[in-house]
Amino acid sequence: MKKSSRRFFGSIVGATVGLPFLSLVLWSFAERWFYPALWPQAWGLRAWRYITSTAGFQVMTAIGHSVVVAAVTAAIAVVIAVPAGRALGQYDFKGKDLVSVLLTLPIIVPPLCVAMGLHLWFIRLGLAETYAGVIGVHLTFCLPYAIFVLWGVFANYNPDFEDQARSLGASRAVVMARVMLPMILPGISVAALFAFLLSWSQYLSTLIIGGGRVTTLPVLLFALMGSGDRPVAAAVSLVFVAPAFIALLFSARHLGNRSLAGVR
Amino acid sequence: MGELDLKNLRIDYGARMIIRDFNLAVRNGEMMSLLGPSGAGKTTILKAIAGLLAPAAGDILIDGQSVRDVPPEKRDAVMVFQKPLLFPFMNVAQNIGFGLRMQGQPGREARRHIGAILALTQLEGLEHRKVHELSGGQQQRVALARALVLKPSVLLLDEPLSNLDANLRQRMRELIQTIQSETRMTMLFVTHDQSEALMISHRVALLLEGRLRQVGAPRELFYQPADPEVARFFGGRNFFQGHVRDGKLHSDLGVFPVGPQNGNGHVRTATIRPEDIRIAPRATGQSRGLRGRVVKTRFEGSSTRVVVACGANEVMVLTPEDAFRPGQEVEITVPPEKIRLFPGD
Ligand SMILES: Nc1ncnc2c1ncn2[C@@H]1O[C@H](COP(=O)(O)OP(=O)(O)OP(=O)(O)O)[C@@H](O)[C@H]1O
Ligand SMILES: [Mg+2]
Fold first, then answer.
1. Residue A210 located in a structural domain
2. Is B297 in the pocket of ligand 1 (CB under 6 A)?
3. Is B35 in the pocket of ligand 1 (CB under 6 A)?
4. Would you list which residues of chain A are within 8 Å, Cβ to Cβ, of chain B?
5. Position A4 pLDDT exceeds 90
6. pLDDT at B263
7. Distance from CA of A181 to the nearest CA of B (A)
8. Which of A161, A183, A209, A246 lies deepest, with the highest CB count within 10 Å?
């Protein structure tokens, strides 16, 4: 692509992604903004002051809960997805198609149904209104995504690298840690990122299983939006999308440059 | 030391038997080629020796000790794969030092060994390069260095030259030969290229369809093939049958003395190499050659392949002269001393 046309497409993409953000930023700094004004009539830091001081504790706790839930979900998803993806990508076995269908099920069935169905079970198992329960329901769709990512990675993975390492004197365990892991690291990062962001953005399933006891950031966000204070909701929304934004920058910086050539 | 003994090896992939009744002894310090067409099972045998595949039956001995229960990382046989398989997340020196680190060699010692091997494989100055910044030939040399630095009793090389162009191939072959004669390391060199096997090795083992067909010095396999299939693999094309009577083979191509030890009255198969047959345009007057007509020719540069119809037989002749055209009447001469008579069954 020519440089000028690349810049053109770049600005279109930038505008579609950036404009909604711009309105969020404007709202978060608005004191007064009534229709049909194009611009807030009065500016101020009230919303930001509110979420950092008055509701500061609430917001910080919610961020903490969200980070813990998303990180644990992502970690469990990756730990299970690596062996599962390896089995699916490297070996042929009976029922592989069935596994693939079962994996897509939680992705195509609306999370609401999954959460409602699981809720009854979780109550019986004592998992309702617990972190473990929320992580469990998040895993129902984060795990399939992670497995699909690593399935793809392992489908292009050349196991001869492992044989070569063993012949050079590496034991089975060392081969896993020193050869396989570094080779699939880009794939692991992508899978973890996916799982983290999916979990981070969950509202409905968290609310149903957590029963309002597990207040992650989206749960708090909806509560604040319900109060009708738009500048505050805008400010919390910005806090909410921050990790996704950071993740986007990170993945563009690190995964884009990382050559996957050696995996083949 | 580096003696390798394969005894009655059988290797299966699932229900498919790939290798059967395989017996081979490689002597200490020997360069042995394992030669065979694609799919013959060469890689399979190397993997079994390296411990990456468990044989279904038979035994593998290194220096007289059975290694059937020894895992690959503990076996004193290191395999170099057909592709370089350099670890992409390590630089050249780290790749070469991988095995030494697995052995727990201290850094200073390892660096000394790596330095020596870099010099031996002509890779000096590239030690800090990333793997993807190397040419194909350099990658192959790093793969070789990575195994050589471990000084294994037996080095298993799986077609290390097959991904290189003709020029590089020759240089790399000479390099391996030099290293072998300097280090006297026992090597089992897999190739599908008959001339490569003949050039590089002390002895050649020919594998066809999972079976070992003949083992011997290069000249032995070339000049005294054990059976027509071995001869065919080494470029033999002219096979004919004849009756043995009174120490002579009576065939369509003539009567040839074959020595008294060959049984009377038997039908036997014989061969003559295309380049051993002399061909000339049909001369007027008396001659002792066989008369024939050129069917087709194929120009190959330094030589030309000519197919000649002699009665019911078609004979292939390889001649340095590009002087024959289809339809031409010619005369061919078969020198009796170049006839190879196969042992009867
Ligand atoms: N993992 C496998 N599963 C089943 N069959 C296999 C497997 N690997 C190889 N084979 C079969 O075993 C036979 C021998 O294969 P092998 O790779 O040893 O041949 P090769 O002599 O090394 O050939 P090439 O010169 O093409 O490398 C082939 O028929 C091949 O199809
Ligand atoms: Mg092979």
1. yes
2. no
3. no
4. 158, 160-161, 163-171, 174, 179, 182-183, 185, 259, 261-263
5. no
6. 66
7. 11
8. A209
CA distances from A25 to A20, A200, A238 (A): 9, 21, 7
**Mind listing the pLDDT tens digit for each residue in A84-93?**
999 999 998 8
Residue A168 reports pLDDT greater than 70 = yes
Q: Does B83 touch chain A (CB under 8 A)?
A: yes
Asked if A169's CB is within 8 angstroms of B150's CB, the reply is: yes
| Separation of alpha carbons A91 and B205, rounded Å | 34
Q: Residue B49: closest CA among chain A residues belongs to which residue?
A: A167
Cα(B43)–Cα(B82) distance, integer angstroms:
9
Binned at pLDDT 50, 70 and 90, residue A55 comes out as confident
Residue nearest to atom 2 of ligand 1 (CA): B13
CATH of the domain at A219: 1.10.3720.10
More confident position, A257 or A210: A210
Check pLDDT > 80 for residue A252: no
Look at strands B77-80 and B154-158 and give their pairing: parallel
> Which pLDDT does position A23 carry in this prediction?
85
Residue A255: pLDDT band by 50, 70, 90 thresholds? low
Average pLDDT over residues A218-246: 84
- Give a yes or no: residue A172 inside a domain: yes
Alpha-carbon radius of gyration of chain B: 25
Beta strands in chain B (DSSP E): 4-13, 16-26, 31-35, 57-62, 65-66, 77-80, 154-158, 186-191, 203-208, 211-216, 238-245, 248-251, 254-257, 267-272, 278-281, 290-299, 304-310, 313-319, 329-333, 340-341
Give the domain range for residue A106. Answer: 65-255
Question: Of all protein residues, whose CA lies closest to atom 7 belonging to ligand 1?
Answer: B13
Residues of chain B with pLDDT under 50: none
> For position A245, what pLDDT does the model report?
80
What's the CA-to-centroid distance between B22 and ligand 1, angstroms? 16
Q: Which of A223, A220, A216 is nearest to A202 (CA)?
A: A216
For B103-131, give the DSSP string: TT--HHHHHHHHHHHHHHTT-TT-TT-BG
Residues of A in contact with B86 (CB under 8 A): 262
Q: How far is the CA of B55 from the centre of ligand 1 (A)?
A: 14
Residue B92, beta-bridge partner list: none
Q: How far apart are CA B114 and CA B101, in angstroms?
A: 11
- Chain-centroid distance of CA A136 in Å reads 15
The count of domains in chain A is: 1
Q: Which atom of ligand 1 is nearest to the CA of B14?
A: 4
Distance (Å) from the C-alpha of residue B85 to the closest C-alpha of chain A?
Answer: 6
How far does residue B42's CA lie from ligand 2's centre (Å)? Answer: 6
B158 Cα–ligand 2 center, Å: 7
Residue A150 lies in a domain: yes
Distance to chain B for A71, nearest Cα, Å: 26
- Asked whether residue A15 is domain-assigned, the answer is no
Confidence of residue A1 (pLDDT cuts 50, 70, 90): low
A247 pLDDT exceeds 80? no
